[in-house]
Amino acid sequence: MIQTDSILTKVIFVAAYILLAPLIGGLLAGIDRKISARMQRRIGPPILQPFYDVHKLWHKQVIAVEKAQSWFLMTYLILMIFTGAMMFSGTDILMCFFVLSTAAAFLFFAAMVTNSPYGYIGAQRELLQIMAYEPSILMTCVGFYLVAHSFEVSKIVAGPVSRILYLPGFFAAFVFSLTIKLRKSPFDTSASRHPHQELVKGLTTEMGARNLAIFEIAEWYETVFLCGVVAMFILNTSWVSIPVAILVILAVFFLEILIDNTNARVKWQSMLLISWVVTLVGGGVNLLILMLVR
Amino acid sequence: MAKIHKSPWLLHYDGSSCNGCDIEVLATLTPVYDAERFGVENTGDPMQADILLITGGINSQNQPVVKQLYDQMPRPKVVVAVGVCACTGGIFKECYNILGGADTTIPVDIYVPGCAARPEAIIDGIVKAVALFEERSEEHDALRHEKKHGQLTPEEYIRKAEENSRASEEAAETKAIDVDKNQIHGNITGELTGHTMNKLRHIGKGKR
Questions:
Q1: How would CATH label the architecture of B4-178?
Q2: pLDDT tens, residue by residue, A161-187
Q3: N or C: which end of chain A has fewer CB atoms below 10 A?
């Protein structure tokens, strides 16, 4: 039903992503903070708070510790937009994840370039996080290929039934790695997101004013991209799959908030071990069954 | 206009204190008082903070640290001194190592007295600081606008920006919070009353 074959549809989807993703991502971030506050029996900030934060950051005085940082972060943002645009235009999902990894490398450079000890450790932990979630997302691509016989997003979402029926293990492993990608406890070792203050601010220690605003906006683009990948598991040729996909995305998001609020941060060794075990068991068993059934 | 007043990020630093005010500052972030509903976020990073919350007095060891933290904060910024120790040196004022309150090192805008300052008073101070922050950010925006359109030289821009960051004497007094009359340990000048001195002598001798 979702025919992304025509150029016009592709252009519309890409334009919609580029314009709407920061708004949706920011709203999701605001809803995240509100629900977290309510879980902790607090009132919490208004839902539009992330937009107020970014607006304020844009107007602060720029103290440039190292000018190259701005270029690295701008590249990170552009590559992140590129990733999402590629996915929403229906091309190769594997290439999308490779571009995502390149973007993550530029984020690593942005944190390392300032020679701050806190940024340095945060950046190294960011690399460890990448090591923890890469197997899972690559296995996800493998799973998609096995059921759809193509890496193209446009073919994966155009199946007769939802892909999740064949890929429950892969879905579980992917949602597990979402905890790492979305920087939620117990796997938020690299950037001490609000209000934790281990390593000052970890990855984002030396990012202030405009740089931090760019980082936040890139995170919003990434959130929408990841929600899109979750939707890929659910979407099929029937139009009913669209509201179901939205419901599943919201349920997964709520699950991530719940996990965030009920777990303390683990050491990076535990993060690697746990995520690899889940990927091997969830993805591996699913893979074996798929190979046997086909 | 910029909605900067909706997003004040704090940096909390403790000089030389008993940590009572620090615990009260942390208490303002707990569910009972919940400062986060104003968009306040306790960031530990001076580069990302708008409001510097100082507790505790200044001694010669932490004076350069406090100065550096203040300098590392990007403009526009506001300083709030929480607790009598940060206002004037408080109960430790006569000690040989304490130089005084936070205003010996950096320009303080808002004084929140109390020993320890109550969370309600701290939130009151933060709200007043946010209002001042909004004023400063409008001046900052106007200054940036002038600089962008070539009406100011770089030296003039820096001089005017620094002036805007400093509080004037009259402005500081009008923004001080009223002392909570239930606080008995020390008054706003930090001198101990005779009543309190007697209590301390009794405690020193092991009596209650």
A1: 3-Layer(aba) Sandwich (3.40)
A2: 888 889 999 999 999 999 999 988 888
A3: C
